[in-house]
Amino acid sequence: MSIELQAGTVSAVGLPRLNRALRPSTKAPVRIVHLGLGAFHRSHQAWYTHQSGDAAGWGIAAFTGRRPDAALALAEQDGLYTVVERGDAGDSFVTVSSIVEAVDGADLQRLAALVAAPATAVITLTITEAAYRLRADGSLDTAAADVAADLALLASGDGHPTTPLGRLVLALAARRAAGTGPLAVVCCDNLSNNGTVAHNAVMGMAGEWDAGLAAWIEANTSFVSTSVDRITPRTTGADLDAVEAACGYRDNSPVVAEPFHNWVLSGDFPAGRPRWEDAGAVFVADIEPYENRKLWLLNGAHSLLAYAGQLRGHSTVAQALTDPLCRDAVERFWDAAEANLPGPDLDIPGYRAALIERFSNARIAHHLAQIAMDGSTKLRMRAVPVLLAERGRGRSGAAAALMIAAWMDFSAAAAELHDPLAEDIAAANTRSAAGRTRAMLELLSPDLVDPAAAGGGPVVELIESLRGTFSGPAVPE
Ligand code: CS2
């Protein structure tokens, strides 16, 4: 959490702290375990669960990632928090009660006990795209320092892995040992085919540790794919005050989100699930078109704006979109993406128009710096597939290549880079022009530099020609 925690049970103006005594609410039994307690989980999956018709039967135990802060703040409020729905015209407030336990992610004993419990039916994940630690070819990067360290810890029987994958595998081992049967793992990170990605990452980790466990997971775990959507910027101190003024209580863990929300899911739930459809979730047989529509159009435009916009001196999505150079790049990228999305059922023109409206919501301060993180992982999903599809159709793919060129310019200029491949990127940036571009492309996808790749082929020169497009500030100083 980026907000400062304010200790105590009352606010500066004497308002009581939000909790279940103040706002009596059913404390549902834990049937969902979540890994990655952050703002997005609270504005999305926990909000959907709260809005389900059978919410009284489905409590969530949510575990943090690296730091315990979010769990500590929420635990002080018995798991209750406010979702501020921030529209163009104003705010509305919902007190959400579906999280019944907020736990420090390092508490692996509690995690194992809950995952092993017979009542637990679903594990949801928002652990970030980068946490799946996949190589450009889609397999688990067992050489990544934290993965290798966790594998060594698991092998030694230490029982305290630190990565979300290591912790999940350990907890699944506890379920196997307890004999409590199959369950669903629902990946809610922005990755294409995210169920398969989660499957491959978990199986990669489990397989290295214990072949018997890997076989059990294969037979007993349903990896559900989902497309998740709700713009959720970081909470600020001003948001805490807005909640206090509107709700008459102090909430140290509110979350601000746009009114729009969307959740498309595909897969089986062998031990049941909440009626998320009551809150608008959609269950489909083939998720790929929805996933690509969201990842390419929404997230692709976000990443393009994150790099191009910051190079031009903007700090939020809404600001960057008012810059004609950025807006034009987004529209051209959308044209390229649209040419590779199927049929009229997806209503791409309507989706694009809605995105312009959502991005222009100036009451949501969605910071480009937040979106710019972990670019090497995000661009594999957001730029590379459109670039390769365009080249496969005999076109240059320049609109998608421009996103990659902007990422490279941004990476070269940034004082500090938040990226799982930050060291490789820094090493690439010490090389001369074409060598640097080639090295950066290799980090995204081998197909971008392989002359024999289907539809791909070298795009080094194309990218080189696009470098510097956004290098001038939008407003001369
Ligand atoms: C954003 C997403 O930070 C990012 O990479 O593109 O978090 C985006 O806001 C969500 O996917 C919206 O649903």
How is the topology of this model organized?
Elements lengths: L29 E6 L3 H5 L1 H7 L7 E5 L5 H7 L5 E6 L4 E6 L2 E5 L4 H9 L5 E4 L19 H12 L7 H15 L4 E5 L6 H16 L1 H10 E9 L7 H11 L7 E3 L4 E5 L15 E2 L4 H24 L5 H5 L2 H15 L9 H12 L8 H5 L2 H8 L1 H9 L5 H16 L8 H7 L4 H12 L15 H7 L11
Parallel strand pairs: 1-2, 1-6, 2-5, 3-9, 6-7, 7-8, 10-11
Antiparallel strand pairs: 3-4, 8-10
Helix pairs in contact: 4-6, 6-7, 7-8, 10-12, 10-15, 10-17, 12-17, 17-20, 19-20
Task: Please tell me about this protein's structure.
By secondary structure, the protein is α/β, with parallel strands linked by helices. It has 2 domains: 4-283, 3-Layer(aba) Sandwich (Rossmann fold); 288-466, N-(1-d-carboxylethyl)-l-norvaline Dehydrogenase, domain 2, CATH 1.10.1040.10. Helix content is 44%, strand content 12%. The protein has 20 helices and 11 strands. The strands form 2 sheets. Strands 5-2-1-6-7-8-10-11 form an 8-stranded mixed β-sheet, sandwiched between helices. A 3-stranded mixed β-sheet has the order 4-3-9, with helices on both faces. A hairpin with a 4-residue loop joins strand 3 (81-86) and strand 4. Helix 10 (288-311) runs antiparallel to helix 12. The radius of gyration is 22 Å and the shape is globular. The two termini are 34 Å apart. The relative contact order is 0.11. The model is unreliable at 1-8 (pLDDT under 50). D-mannonic acid (CS2) binds next to helix 10 and helix 14.
In short:
With 477 residues, this protein is an alpha/beta fold. The protein has helices spanning 39-43, 45-51, 69-75, 108-116, 145-156, 164-178, 194-209, 211-220, 237-247, 288-311, 317-321, 324-338, 348-359, 368-372, 375-382, 384-392, 398-413, 422-428, 433-444, 460-466; strands at residues 30-35, 59-63, 81-86, 91-96, 99-103, 122-125, 183-187, 221-229, 255-257, 262-266, 282-283.
